[in-house]
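Quarterly update from the structural biology core.
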Amino acid sequence: MNAHDYAIQANGSFALPDACFKVKALMEDESSCIEDFANVISVDPSMTSRLLQIANSAIYSFPGEVSTISRAITIIGTQAIYNMMLVDVAASAFKHFSNQAIDLKRFWRMSVFCGLATKNLSIKAGIRDIERLFVAGLLQNFGELIVAKVSPELAKTCESYDAEHLPWMVQQQTLGFTYTEISAELLKIWQIPEKIILPIRHYNEAQDIQINKDVKVLYLATRLALVDAHPDRFSYDDTIDESLCQSLGISTDDLNLAADFASQEAEHILSIMDAKHFTR
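Predicted structure, tokenized:
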């Protein structure tokens, strides 16, 4: 099986809900208004409740309470609303694909940590549309969950990584491709915007091809997440490329602050998205 084959299997078991496609269509329609978006979202009480929780969470840190969908859209913007719907979809998918082949608690925390670190580093690097990169950080390793569901023995083998055999290297050796390649293929099937897919597809090549800031930031965030998950195995010196930091204007202090922010907020975000339920 190749990366696309795994993505096809996942899509056959779990697809994006119609609401995501409707919101995407509204985003592409210049005549659409806030009420149109609110009408699509409000028909789903669960989505409405979750979206308001996220709008009032540390992800955005808005002053005052956001109490209506229309207000959330006005403050956050339609692109961020769409991104947050993807986050909610991801949470549901994580539950759907949960099994014992991998350490789910580690997987879920790394995903949320990476999203938060990506957001923080994006601000430091002067990148706009940071919500998009939060989603990229959250979903970049989705392929691990798919392999754990479809090929649990291979997923267990890919768990055997260390400082000399980095995770993506073990994945390449075991599968012939990386988890992020599966993630990118699935998001392409789901018609997720290319701006989210591109850094996921290429960040492990950041040292070689230097595509853009998005790729570099996601590269750094995934390394911070790896150190956070396994402080006994990895350190910044082993995993962080100083030249990438310099090209983004990111200092060691910035990295530490991003890691501290992600670590402090990860548990809060996990509780909002009911992730603890997925790791039981």
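Residues 275-280 have pLDDT under 50 and may be disordered.
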